[in-house]
Amino acid sequence: MHFDRRDFLRTSALAAATAVVSQRLGATTSTAAAEAAGPTTTPDGIRWDKAPCRFCGTGCHVRVGVRDGRVVAIQGERLAEVNKGLLCVKGYHVGGILYGRDRLTQPMLRRNGVLEPIAWSEAIEIIAQRIMARPETFAIYGSGQWTVPEGYAAQKLMKGGLSNNHIEPNARLCMASAVTGYLSVYGVDEPAGCYDDLDAADVVILWGNNPAEMHPILFSRIIDRRARGEKITIIDIGTRRTRTTEYADEYLEFQPQSDMAIANGIAHLLIANGTWDQEFVSRHCNFRGDNQPLDLNGKAITFDEYKALVAPYTPEFVEKISGVPAAKIRMLADLFGRRDVRITSLWCMGMNQHTRGTAINRLVHSVHLLSGHFGRPGDAPTSLTGQPSACGTAREVGTMCHFLPGGRLVANEAHRRESEKFWNLPEGRINPKPGHHTVLMWEKFCTPTSKGGDISTIWVQVTNPGQTLPNLHKLFRGKQGLEDKFLIVSEVYPTATTELADLVLPSAMWVEKNGIYGNSERRTQQWYRQVMPPGQARDDAWQTIAVARRLFELGHPGMKDRDGNFLFTVRDDAGKEVPAWQWEHYYDVNVDRALYEEYRQFTRMKHKDLAPYDVLAQARGLRWPVVQKEDGSWHETPFRFMEFSDPYVKPGAGIQFYHSVTKDDRALIWFCAYEPAAEAPDADYPTWLNTGRVLEHWHSGTMTMRVPQLRNAMPNAYVEMNPEDAAAAGLANGDIAIVESRRGKLELPVWINGRATPPRGTVFVPFFDERLLINEVTLGEPCPISKEPDYKKCAVRVYAKGAQPARQPGLGDRPRLVAP
Amino acid sequence: MSPRPGHTPTPPPRRTGWHGAALAGVIALTIGLSGFFMGLRQTGRATTEQREEWAAATGGMPGPGATGDGSETAPPIVEYARLGEGSLHANRDWVNSLDKLASPAAPKAGYAFLSADEQALVRRQRASRRLYDGAPPTAPHPLDQLNPAACLECHGKPTSISGVMVPQMSHKLHANCLQCHVSSSGPTSTWRSREVALSDGNRFQGTTASGYGSRAYVGAPPVISHTTWMRQSCITCHGPGGTAAFRTSHPERQNCLQCHATDARAEQSPMFARASIGSSELPPPLPPSAQREIGSFR
Predict the structure, then answer these.
(1) Can you give the residue range of the structural domain that contains A208?
(2) In chain A, whose CA is at the least distance from the CA of B128?
(3) Which residues make Cβ contacts (< 8 Å) with residue A3, sequence separation at least 6?
(4) Are residues A758 and A696 in the same domain?
C-alpha cells in the first residue's frame, strides 16, 4: 500500500492520540486520574457524574447533575472522545425524561379491560406461571436500549434456562441488514473504522442519511472542521432535501431503492476506467455473487465474472434507474478512483430498512474495498446505529433468535457446547433450532393458537412495538380479542404497547440503575445509578432474575446449572450468595458487574474483547478489542483489521481480515443485482411515502415527547409535501390530508416542504407520534436475508380529507414486483 | 411594487373633484393590482432552485452580516400570496433592513439598576426558556431557517428589533445551530401552535440559576458564578446588548477576567481535576445586611 507523507503525518497524529488514551487508561490506578474520571461536586451542591446519553447510537457522554436525589442539570462531558463536551438538543434535555407526570410507578394487571395495581410478588408469580404452563410458546422482545447486562440476563434466561430461542430485539427492525452486510463481507459484525475517520476524511458520502438531524454530534464534527478552514466535501445521496443537504457540496437525488444501481455504477466505472485498486484487491479481497434463493454467504465468483456482472451498470443505465445524472455517477466514481483523497461512507436506516438491505450494505463495503478506500483513517464504510446499545446488546450479546453471545450461532454445535460450558449447563441444554424472528414472532402472537399461532406470551422490555412494528394492524392490533394471548410490558410510561398489555411492570430507567451500553463505533460505556427510581419502578435485569428465581422455586429444571445452583447466582466479595432476586438486596452487590464479567468471557472468540468492569468504569467508553499489555495497562482499538491499531493483526500484514468468510484473511467484494422496490408508485397509489425521524424526538417519542422543550419544538407528526403536489391535491399548510396505502390510512396535517423538501411525487412522515401511527401504513416486506422490514418507503395516495383519491394513469398499472 | 395583496388603496379625499379622484383611484388600483400580480408571478421558481442559488452564493457557509453585493446571489423574495406557507427565506431586503435598525446604544454613564421585582421578572423569563441553567435556550420564535447564516443575522451581534433585545451567541460558532436550539412554539410560523397539543407537563426541576458567585467581601469583584463552557463571550449576556438584569455596571472595562475569576470547582475542567481544590462546600453565607447591600449590584 502506498504510504505518502500526508498519510504518515495523519497516522502519526492518530497514533499520538491513541498513545494519550493509552496513557490515560494505563494510569487508571493512580489517584489523580481516578479523580478526573470520577464524580465531582460543585459549590452549589450539585453532584456531577458521567453517563452515556440515553438516546441514539452515537454514544455521547453527558455529565449528570444531581441534587437532593433528583437530576437537576446536564452538561456535555468534556472527557468523552465522542462528543468532546458538545451535545444535541436531546442530550441537553435528557434529564427531563425521568420526570414526566405519567411515569409508571406500580405493577398493573388488566382485569375486565382495566389495568389495576397489583403487588410485584403477584406480577412475578403470574409471569412464572405462564412460563411454567407453556414454556415453548413464551417469547421475549427487547431492544437495543437494553443495557448489556439486561440483554445478557434475558438471553441467558431464554436460551440457557428455558431452552427457548424466541428472543428478539427491535434491532431486527433497524440493524439486522447492517449485521448481515458486515458478516457476509468481513465474516464478523461491526465496523472496522470509527468516528476518528470523520476527522481524517476528505470526502464524506451519506447514503440515504440525514445526520444533521439524526446524528447531529457526528455531523457537527464534520462541518465544524470546515468552519475551521479544512476542506471537506459532503456528498448527500438522498431522496429528499434535508438539513444535511444544506451543508452538502453535492446533492444526488435518487429514486428509492436505486442506491444499489448507484453502487454498481461506481464499481463498473472503477473497472472500466482502470482506477480500481488492483494491489489492494489482489492482496486482500475475493469476489462473491448471490445464490438463488438468496443466502448469507453466496458463492465465489472470479474477477472476470464480477467484471461482466457490473458491466451493464453504465452511468447512463444507472441514470435511467436512479434519476441521478450520469455525470454525477462519474463524479462519484472519479472520487473513488483517486488514491489521494480519503472517503468515509455513512449510512443508517436508509440502507438497512430495505428489501435488499443486506445487498446494499455489501455493495457499499464492496465499492470501498474495490477502490482501496479502506484501512487508513478517513477511508471507511461505517454504518451508524439508532439505539444506544444496538451494537453493545443486540449485536454483541446477540439477543436475537439465531445468536448466542459473542457472535455465536445457536445452529452451530461447537458454539452451543462452548456457551453451555461458560454457563456451566448440562450438554444439550441449548436448543439448536433458531426461534422466530421479530416479524414472525408477532405474526404468530397475533394468530389464534388454533390456526398455528405458536407464541402465547410475549414479554416486552425497553421498547414500544405497538408503535414501531411495521404493518401494525396485522402484527400488533391483531392481538385484540385473542383470549389466550398474554402481553407483558416492562415500561416507564404508558405507550401504544401498554394499551394492549395484560400486565404492565414499572421499570427503572437510565441513571436510575447501573448500566452498560455499546455504541456505533464498538465503544462500550458504563455508568452507575445516580438517582432512585420513582415509586415501585425496578431494574429490568432484576425483573428477569426475579422471574427466573420464581421458576427455580417452582422446580423448573432449566433454572439450575450443572451443579444444581441457581442460574443467576451472584456472590459478594466473601463468596457468599446474595439473594439478588429480592429487590431489597439487589444493590447489595453490583449485579451489573457480575453479569458483565460473566458475559466478558464470551467476547474473545470473535476478538471483541471487552475491558474489565473496573477499567471501563474509569473510562468514557472503550472501543473493543480492549487488550491488556504486558505492563498491565488496557488498550482500546480504534481501527480494526489494521496493523497500526489492531493488536490482533499479524505483524507485517498491514491489513488482515482475520475472521474472513473464506478463511484466507480476505474480505469479499460482492456483486448483487439491482432489484426494484417491493412496492413502487402506480396509478392507484401514485406517491412515494418516505418515513423517518426528526431531531427533537428519539424513536417512538415515549421519552422525548414528555420533555416540554422537545415536545413544544415538534409537537406532532405531519406529512411533508412538495408545494406542487399539495397544490394539485388542493391542500394548503395545516389542511388535513389522508395518506393511504394498501395496508392502512392516516389523517395528517400538511406541511408544505416542511423541515425538508421532498421532490414531486414524494411525501415524508415522521414516526415519533404515537397518536399518528404511520406504521399502520408502511410495508412489512423484509430483506430475505436479514429479515429486516422495509419501513422506509412504500406507495401511497395522498388526498384532502373529504375528497376522493385521484388515480394517475400516467404512471401505468405497474405490477407489484415482489410478492407481498 | 410596494402594495401588498389584500391592501386596498384608500381613495383620495374629494378635494380635487370627482375626475381627479377617479383618476387617482384608477391609477392606485392599477398599480396595486399589477403589483399584486407581479408579486404572484415573481416567484414561479422552485424552492429548491432558490436554495441552490443561495447555497452557491454563500458557499454553504455562514458569514455574520454578510449581505453580499451581488443582487443575483440573494434568494428571491417569497411569493406574496404564499408568505404564510412553506419555509421563509432570508432575502436581501430583510438582511439590509436589519442593518438599518438601530443597535442599542450603550448607556453614557452607568446603568439604572433594576428593582428586585424587575430582576425577578427578567430571571423568570430567562428561566422559562431553559430546562435548567446551562441548557441551550429555546427560541421564543418559530425556526424556519435552514442555514446558520440566517441565525447569525440576528444572533451574531447584539441586536434590538422593535425594542426587543436579541441575545448574541455566547459561544463560538458551531455550524449546526438547530442541533441544540429548538423553537418553543412549534416548528415554524406555519404551524398553528394553538391547534397542536404542546407539552402537558413534566416534573423535572432544573437549577434555575447557578448563583454561587461568591465575593470575598463587600465590594470585591464577584467570582464568575457559572461554568464558562459554551459561555465564552462575557459581553453576550453581561454587555450592553445583554439582558438588563445581568448587565455589567462597567461596560467600558474590556478584560473581564482581569477581575472576575472562574471557579475551578464549578468549571469541572479535567485540567483542574488533579489540582488540590479547596473544599467543595459553599462558602459561609453572608450576613443579611451585607446581602442587602450586595443585592443592588447583582
Answers:
(1) 201-388
(2) A709
(3) none
(4) yes
Contacts of B43 (CB under 8 A, 6+ apart): B76, B77, B78, B79, B82
Q: Cα separations (Å) of A476 from A443, A468, A692, A775?
A: 8, 10, 20, 11
Other CB atoms within a 10 A radius of the CB of residue A143 amount to 29
Predicted TM-score (pTM) of the model is 0.83
- Of the residues B204, B214, B230, the best mutation for testing chain A's interface (the one with the most A CB atoms within 10 Å of its CB) is B204
What confidence score (pLDDT) does residue B49 get? 41
Residue A403, beta-bridge partner list: A409
CATH of the domain at A779: 2.40.40.20
Question: Do A384 and A399 fall into the same domain?
Answer: no
- A207 within some domain: yes
Could B229 and A75 be called an inter-chain contact, meaning their C-beta atoms sit closer than 8 Å? yes
- Interatomic CA distance for residues A313 and A268, integer angstroms: 6
What one-letter code names the amino acid at A320?
K
Name chain B contacts of A41, Cβ cutoff 8 Å: 265, 280
Residues of B in contact with A217 (CB under 8 A): 179
State the nearest Cα–Cα gap between B133 and chain A, in angstroms. 7
Question: Where does a domain end: A388, A405, A429?
Answer: A388
C-alpha distance from A81 to closest chain B C-alpha (Å):
13
User: In terms of domains, do A215 and A264 share one?
Assistant: yes
Q: What is the ipTM of this complex?
A: 0.71
Structural domains of chain A, count? 4
Please indicate whether residue A90 is annotated as part of the active site: yes
Grid coordinates belonging to A34: 481516578
Least confident span in A94-108, A339-353, A585-599, B66-80: B66-80
Residues of A in contact with B176 (CB under 8 A): 212, 216, 219-220, 223, 243, 247
> pLDDT by residue (tens digit) across A764-819?
999 998 888 898 899 888 999 999 999 999 999 999 999 888 887 766 654 333 33
- A816 assigned to some structural domain: no
Same domain, A82 and A223: no
Q: What is the mean pLDDT of residues A37-65?
A: 91
What is the C-alpha to C-alpha distance for residues B266 and A461, in angstroms, rounded to an integer? Answer: 38
Q: Which residue of A has its CA nearest to B62?
A: A227
Are A79 and A128 found together in one domain?
no
Q: What average pLDDT score do residues B182-197 get? A: 66
A159-171 pLDDT tens trace: 999 999 999 999 9
Residue the block writes with cell 456528498:
A235
pLDDT, mean of residues B250-268: 72
- Report yes or no on A14 lying in a domain: yes
**Do A454 and A510 fall within a single domain?**
yes
Whose CA is closest to A744, among A792, A795, A790?
A795
Residue A166's SS3 state is coil
For the question of residue A794 being annotated catalytic, the response is no
Catalytic residue among A60, A214, A349, A783: A349
Residue B91 CB neighbours (<10 A)? 16
Of the three residues A538, A562, A586, the one that is the final residue of a domain is A586
- Percentage of chain A surpassing pLDDT 90? 84
CA–CA separation, A614 and A592 (whole Å):
12
> From CA A369, how far away is CA A668, in angstroms rounded?
8
User: Chain B contact for A68, CB < 8 A?
Assistant: no
Q: What average pLDDT does the segment A359-379 reach? A: 97
Give yes or no: residues A214 and A323 share one domain: yes
Q: How far apart are CA A687 and CA A762, in angstroms?
A: 6
Among A73, A89, A733, beta carbon nearest to B206: A73
Q: Which residues, in sequence order, are bridge partners of residue A794?
A: A689
Residues A371, A477 share a domain: no
Q: What is the pairing mode between strands A719-721 and A745-752?
A: parallel
Domain contains A57: yes
Specify the pLDDT at position B38. 41
The span from the CA of A619 to the CA of B266, in Å, is 22
CATH of the domain at A91: 3.30.200.210
